[in-house]
Structures are given as structure tokens and as C-alpha cells.
Write a structure and sequence with these properties.
single chain; 149 residues; alpha+beta; Arc Repressor Mutant, subunit A; Dna Ligase, domain 1; 3-stranded antiparallel sheet; 3-stranded mixed sheet; 5 helices; 48% helix; flat; binds zinc ion; zinc; Transcriptional repressor; repressor; transcription regulation
């Protein structure tokens, strides 16, 4: 409950995330901490993650399953856009902003002061496509066939 303990937990969780190239769920962070012999309860992990996200130190990522994943935000710049592989969860940051022009255009058109925007792209990375081999190709065609009509 003490604030020094809270700070310690925040540090621990940020460290776990900083050592990962991919976003982690609260459950995975909890397990990482436990493997490193840090006893932080799952409820605490959730609470700390919430606090860190509110402070803008973390970003939550949705990968199309019910879990929420968290990743550390780069401390500087507008490095907020990503290509996210839904298979291996690799997150590839985009340099710069692909919609800067759109933002100023919308701002002018609607007389709207835009403070920020969120933009991520989801799909399958080159590595996952390369490794998946012919099996996933046939999976894909089964999916297509399975669609009604
Ligand atoms: Zn991938
Ligand atoms: Zn942007």
C-alpha cells in the first residue's frame, strides 16, 4: 500500500516490458515477475498497469483476442504508430507519422483541434508468413470456402 512499494512495482513492471520486443498481457507480466522471484499479485499487476497507462508510460494493444497487451511507449517523439503481427505479436514501430497531412486537412475542414490520434496496422509479419509454409495456405483457402455463399 505504501507509495514506495507502488513505485517499486511500477519499476519492476516497466523493466519486464522494456526487455520484451513484443507486448505482454497482465498474466504474462505476472508470470515473468514470478519467474524472477518477485512476488507481485496479479491484481496488483493490473492496478499498476492501469496507473502506468494513465500516466502515458504504457500503451495497450488489442490483438484481436480478449486479452489486453501492454507495451512501453518510447519516451520521446511521435513514434506511436505500429505494424503489429497478430501471430507472433511482433510490434514494428513506424518512423514518423503517415497521417500528418490528413490531420491538418481534417482540422481545417471541420474546424476541429486535434490533440492526438491512434493508428496501428494489424496483420502478419514477413517472418510468420515465411515460416508458416504450405499448411497455412490451405488453411486460408478452407476459411474462404467456409464462408457462407
Ligand atoms: Zn509475426
Ligand atoms: Zn501520427
Amino acid at each position: 500500500m505504501s507509495s514506495s512499494r507502488q513505485t517499486r512495482n511500477q519499476k519492476l513492471i516497466l523493466e519486464v516490458l522494456q526487455h520484451q520486443s513484443q507486448p505482454l498481457s497482465a498474466q504474462e507480466i505476472f508470470l515473468e515477475l514470478r519467474n524472477a522471484n518477485h512476488t507481485v499479485g496479479l491484481a496488483t499487476v493490473y492496478r499498476v498497469l492501469d496507473a502506468l497507462r494513465n500516466e502515458g508510460k504504457l500503451q495497450s494493444v488489442n490483438l484481436g483476442d480478449p486479452q489486453t497487451y501492454y507495451q512501453v511507449l518510447p519516451s520521446n517523439g511521435h513514434n506511436r504508430h505500429h505494424l503489429i503481427c497478430t501471430q507472433c505479436r511482433q510490434v514494428i514501430p513506424l518512423s514518423g507519422c503517415p497521417v500528418g497531412d490528413l490531420e491538418s486537412q481534417l482540422s481545417g475542414q471541420y474546424q476541429f483541434v486535434i490533440e492526438y490520434h491512434v493508428l496501428d496496422f494489424y496483420g502478419t509479419c514477413a517472418r510468420c508468413r515465411g515460416e508458416s509454409g504450405p499448411e497455412s495456405g490451405s488453411q486460408e483457402s478452407t476459411l474462404l470456402k467456409a464462408q457462407p455463399k
